[in-house]
Design brief:
The structure is a single chain. The chain is globular, with a radius of gyration of 21 Å. It folds into two domains: 184 residues; 190 residues, Rossmann fold (3-Layer(aba) Sandwich), CATH 3.40.50. Helix 3 crosses helix 5, helix 10 crosses helix 11 and helix 10 packs parallel to helix 15. The chain contains 16 helices and 14 strands. The chain has 405 residues and is of the alpha/beta class. The chain has an eight-stranded mixed beta sheet. Strands 11-10-9-12-13-14 form a six-stranded parallel beta sheet, sandwiched between helices.
């Protein structure tokens, strides 16, 4: 793709929306909706066309840099837990899921080949490829961050942490989405603004589109199948061992029976290390057939519609929780049994923004009690939280946008 050097200074929206994860795919939609009239370039680490799933046709940042040359350009990191995503993690998550095991086996014990492969996949030799700066691109005029996360940055390998902090010190504005990340950066002398994750605006900005998907997609027949409503349930592949699935099934049966609810199992991301349809099918097999359905769509608007039409959300995905928050629904997050630290960003976000009466992250053995507590919360309080976060993000984003004028 060539760019006209005479056109208005473009703005690159940069993030991990080059792979399938519902939150990452939503973030550029939200940024674009808040930047009407601006010339936008959607960029990730790799060129990917995710429009079939409701995402964007994404260009590789390295290709955009080559095409623009010395033309002045601004860059906005649209959000996500990007500050601690390593080059290795990014490269693996860009693979088709069916190729992961073979590639990992091939690269095992070959550090030089592994390093070369990572660089080919990410288009960068850097350790933190989703954190961009001007070091190798002097034409970048302004670099901003809109609600990014890095809750594990303080515990990261020192060299990686140092590189991230060095890049952030050169940014024009750094907006972070949780107090834990903010405290880490403040301790390093980096000024930040605290603002919610951009997805708190999903209902306000895209309510009509989501409603259309709800009327036409997998959500529609669920109203007939579950006249008293259903619970939207999601879990990553980390929950896939038999013992954990047995416990999940027992807990979900308790919630369903106590509230007359159906159970809708869905995926919030299909990239490697995210969700696995087979895990959901194995969980469904442990539940009474009349009470459970498994959603197959990976379109992000279908996924949002399933959550929006539910009575509540229970899962491991942070953005599953945030979509539920935007729709003023009861929600809880689940901690993976073998690696509970993987729920750190969910806990940090809930501690920063959610009402103290809303359960944050719980072990699978606590699911029924926590979900029952969430379902009992007053709808007015949930709506107040949704309205407060949407308004706060808009104010924070406007301050960022003013720097791009």
């Amino acid at each position: 793709m060539a760019y006209d050097a005479c056109m208005a200074q473009p703005l690159i929206l940069f993030g991990a929306f080059d792979r399938h994860n519902v939150g990452d795919l939503l973030l550029p939609h939200i940024a674009a909706a808040l930047l009407p009239g601006r010339e936008l370039i959607f960029a990730g680490l790799a060129a990917r066309d995710l429009r079939a799933h409701g995402g964007h046709a994404v260009r590789a940042l390295s290709e955009v840099r080559a095409a623009l040359g010395t033309q002045p350009v601004d860059l906005l990191h649209v959000g996500g837990e990007i500050l601690t995503t390593t080059a290795w993690q990014a490269a693996v998550m860009l693979l088709p899921p069916e190729e992961v095991q073979a590639m990992l086996a091939y690269l095992q014990g070959q550090p030089q080949e592994q390093a070369a492969w990572v660089q080919r996949m990410t288009g960068s030799a850097g350790q933190t490829p989703y954190v961009a700066d001007r070091t190798h691109w002097p034409a970048l005029q302004r670099v901003l961050y809109a609600g990014v996360g890095g809750v594990q940055l303080a515990q990261s390998e020192p060299a990686l942490r140092a590189k991230v902090l060095a890049k952030l010190r050169t940014a024009n504005a750094v907006g972070v989405r949780d107090m834990q990340t903010q405290h880490t950066l403040q301790a390093a002398g980096i000024a930040t603004t605290l603002l919610p994750d951009p997805a708190v605006l999903v209902a306000e900005l895209f309510g009509e589109r989501i409603a259309q998907h709800g009327a036409q997609g997998e959500a529609a027949p669920l109203r007939l199948a579950f006249p008293h409503g259903f619970l939207a349930v999601q879990c990553s592949a980390e929950f896939g061992d038999d013992a954990t699935l047995d416990t999940l099934a027992t807990q979900l049966k308790q919630v369903a029976a106590a509230n007359g609810l159906g159970l809708l199992l869905l995926r919030a991301g299909a990239a490697p290390w995210h969700d696995d349809l087979g895990v959901l099918q194995r969980l469904a097999a442990r539940l009474p057939p009349a009470t459970v359905r498994v959603a197959e769509s990976l379109n992000i608007w279908d996924i949002c519609a399933l959550i929006a039409h539910s009575r509540g959300y229970c899962g491991s995905s942070l953005h599953g929780r945030i979509v539920a928050m935007a729709y003023a629904l009861p929600r809880i997050n689940l901690r993976p049994p073998a690696s509970p630290q993987q729920a750190a960003k969910q806990a940090a976000f809930a501690a920063t923004w959610d009402d103290a009466n809303v359960p944050a992250t719980v072990d699978v053995q606590q699911l029924a009690g926590a979900m029952q507590q969430a379902l009992a919360l007053p709808s007015r309080a949930l709506q107040d939280t949704a309205d407060r976060l949407a308004a706060q993000y808009r104010r924070g984003f406007e301050a960022l946008r003013a720097q791009l004028a």
